[in-house]
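pls ignore typos typing on phone
nicotinamide-adenine-dinucleotide + seq
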Amino acid sequence: MSIHGDRILVTGGAGFIGSHLVDLLVDAGARVRVLDDLSAGKLDNLKEVRGDIEFINGSIRDAGTVNNAVAGCRLVFNFAANADVPRSVEHPDLDFFTNSVGAYNVLAAARKHGVERTLQASTAAVYGEPVYTPMDEGHPLRPISPYGASKLGAESLGLAWHHTYEFSFTAVRIFNTYGPRQPRYVIHDLFRKLQRNPRQLEVLGTGEQVRDYCYVSDTAGAFLALALNPKADGQAYNIAGGQPVSIRELVAMILDTLGYTNTEVTYTGKSWPGDITRLVADITKITAQGFAPRINLSEGLLRFADWIQP
Ligand SMILES: NC(=O)c1ccc[n+]([C@@H]2O[C@H](COP(=O)([O-])OP(=O)(O)OC[C@H]3O[C@@H](n4cnc5c(N)ncnc54)[C@H](O)[C@@H]3O)[C@@H](O)[C@H]2O)c1
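k done
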């Protein structure tokens, strides 16, 4: 199915993952509109496509702005959010009003304008502490952070509207995504610390936390594929790399990527409120729809290293 010439909205499109989706959509010939308040995203993330897209500097909290941005769009991808989990612990209002109420504004406008499909960037944080791993989409939804709760609000509304109004909607529960333009989180932070001091590395936590990293172009590609897949309507999917590693293993891979052999690594042992020990996805459901991660962790870390230290 072609999207050539179609108007498509990406909220949060100046952010890390959203900007990679914008790149894919522009490559596919879509007329892309980005709505972003630049609270975390950067125009720099869009510099290669700036002349090809329409950019609206505005907030999804503002229903009127959202209504204008959604008008005329075939597809809507809602990536706009406070995506900083530790910050959500300090400012739960930010998450509620942006991630839940803002998402409501996007859904309401999409319904009003008869958008063909709305996709919500959701998160593994909607599951909370794992009852079992790997977690499939049927795992209990018991978020333990304000961030997870606010994102569950957004995807629950969309899925409920699918049943109530035959509203076309897909939720994509992103596990940890990494890659160029990432502004925060473990892989980014470890590279930055090593840039400052290649001889010593202090790592937050015990090193035993397990994560399931997905390279950003694979995550963005999955959103586009699901948007065009009729079977994905009314569904929630996990998206992850399918190659879980402990932070200790990740640290070793990063040191290997950089060719550092004499770095002294220490672990603080302490973590932060809302952190989850083992975050591993069952990706059978999305794989059955044709998803296969193309960039494995070793290759992705090489690409990330090229970006962060050109
Ligand atoms: N990065 C990950 O590993 C990950 C994991 C799970 C879920 N997600 C979800 O994916 C989406 C994108 O995350 P990201 O990592 O690219 O984060 P990001 O912070 O880079 O992107 C979020 C974007 O939304 C924008 N934004 C924030 N509030 C806004 C508002 N009120 N109105 C308009 N724009 C607003 C920011 O300026 C930013 O450009 C988020 O919805 C996040 O919850 C990301």
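The pocket of nicotinamide-adenine-dinucleotide is lined by residues 11-12, 14-18, 35-41, 59-61, 79-83, 98, 102, 121, 123, 151, 174, 176-177, 183 (CB under 6 Å). The mean pLDDT is 95. more later
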